[in-house]
Amino acid sequence: MIVCNHLEGLIWLANHGTIEYHVPFERARQVTPLEIAFDLDPPDRKHFSQAIKAAQLIKQILDV
């Protein structure tokens, strides 16, 4: 879980611009998330196959 409650923390997160941080989907007082989003944005339409490959690799890892 990421806590960002100070300007310094926000700047630190912004400097990691290659990853979008998404809050896990969970209910209040629940320890584990119900869902997790992986935002796989390719650099452009021409390289959309990279997002597909990344999704396939993530699926292989999570299926183990």
Radius of gyration: 15 Å
Question: How much is the average pLDDT?
Answer: 83
Major sheet characteristics: none
How many helical stretches? 2
Shape category: flat
Outline the low-pLDDT stretches. none
Quickly give the structural class.
mainly alpha
Q: Please give the number of β-strands.
A: 0
Strand content: under 5%
Could you estimate the helical fraction of the residues in percent? Answer: 25-40%
State the separation between the terminal residues, measured CA to CA: 23 Å
Give the SSE string.
HH
Describe the structure.
The protein has 64 residues and is mostly helical. It has a domain at 23-63. The protein has two helices and no strands. The protein has helices at residues 7-14, 48-63. It is flat, with a radius of gyration of 15 Å. The chain starts with 6 loop residues before the first helix and ends with a helix. The mean pLDDT is 83.
SSE layout and pairing:
Blueprint: H1 7-14, H2 48-63
